[in-house]
Write a sequence for this structure.
């Protein structure tokens, strides 16, 4: 079974800063990690490989530093790692990103299953996985909390607000997964050392010669960000706790009167 997993390197912080000129994330000086949901996707892929045989290829689009994320993926079970990187890709929105990744996937070969995390924690759009399916003309299955493969058939338990939907499709498909699907394994010292020596393949516009230049980068991105901002932190509220419930209520009323709310 040939499986490909799309991962993203994201900032390891909740303190997101925005460049007011470009309306993009400021990543300088911020530590990076593999997107947590993508770790679940990789773990699902490795478990399927262990059950059915085959290989797991992991791919990411980003700058040179994203190689570290790929090495981490190799340390926990990926067999092949590919970095899609080129200055021409800078500024790509989810449409352009999914288009570039879909062309990279075509270049890398035929896969039975393409897995993605449900969303990236820095953008939270949940668009890239389904968009890859559209670009490739494949069926898509989203929010998978359980995956079962039987021959050329795949079934998932799709997580919804009301419970689960059981969906079946014929391979190949693109599938996004949720956090509850598994607990990602940890790398060992031995696997980390081996991953540091792993070959990281690289694809640029030179290798992806069929790329439509009008669909990549900032100019090829139909999304236009008019304004971004970091919400102002509010002061924490006042906790009122007196000796009795009556005294607590009276104190609350006193505070409301002072604030001219009653």
């Amino acid at each position: 079974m040939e499986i490909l997993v799309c991962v993203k390197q994201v900032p390891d912080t909740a303190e997101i800063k925005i460049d007011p000129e470009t309306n993009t994330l400021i990543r300088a000086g911020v530590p990076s990690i593999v997107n947590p949901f993508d770790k679940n996707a990789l773990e699902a892929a490795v478990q399927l490989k262990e059950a059915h045989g085959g290989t797991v290829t992991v791919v990411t689009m980003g700058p040179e530093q994203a190689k570290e994320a790929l090495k981490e993926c190799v340390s926990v079970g990926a067999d092949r790692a590919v970095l899609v990187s080129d200055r021409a890709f800078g500024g790509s929105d989810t449409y352009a990103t999914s288009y570039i990744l879909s062309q990279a996937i075509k270049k890398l070969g035929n896969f039975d299953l393409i897995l993605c995390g449900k969303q990236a924690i820095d953008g939270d759009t949940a668009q890239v996985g389904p968009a890859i399916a559209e670009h490739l003309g494949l069926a898509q299955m989203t929010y998978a909390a359980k995956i079962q493969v039987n021959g050329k058939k795949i079934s998932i338990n799709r997580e919804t607000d009301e419970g689960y939907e059981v969906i079946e499709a014929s391979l190949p498909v693109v599938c996004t997964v949720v956090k509850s699907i598994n607990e990602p394994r940890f790398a060992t010292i031995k696997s980390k050392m081996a991953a540091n020596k792993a070959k990281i393949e690289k694809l640029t516009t030179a290798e992806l010669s069929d790329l439509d230049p009008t669909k990549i980068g900032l100019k090829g991105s139909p999304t236009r960000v008019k304004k971004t901002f970091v919400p102002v932190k509010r002061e924490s509220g006042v906790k009122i706790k007196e000796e009795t419930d009556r005294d607590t209520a009276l104190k609350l009323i006193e505070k409301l009167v002072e604030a001219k709310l009653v």
